[in-house]
Specification:
Number of strands: 2
Organism: Electrophorus electricus (Electric eel)
Shape: globular
Protein name: Protein S100
Order of helices and strands: HEHHHEH
Largest sheet: 2 strands, antiparallel
Keywords: Calcium, Metal-binding, Repeat
GO molecular function, one term: calcium ion binding
CATH architecture: Orthogonal Bundle
Strand order of the largest sheet: 1-2
Helix content: 55-70%
CATH topology: Recoverin, domain 1
Length: about 100
Amino acid sequence: MPSDLEKAMESLIMVFHRYACREGNSNTLSRRELRELMENELSNFLKSQKDPGIVDKIMKDLDTNRDGEVSFEEFVSLVVGLSIACEQCYQVHLKKTGAQK
């Protein structure tokens, strides 16, 4: 039986490929595929952003090789960055509630 972390990794891979296979190269996200993924899978993050061009800015930041697409390796950096930010918020919450050991 897979562990929670193994399930999370599988989910990350499956979500990426669910959107990547919609047009063009099935191993990368186009700008439209990235937008759809973020609108559906990261909607709370997008709602909290005040910049209407945030997806385009994220696309530019993620596309490190400048090929106009986002590979899985490039996409993972978004997930890692958001996860780090969420963990930092979690730590602040623990301190406020006195739940930290």
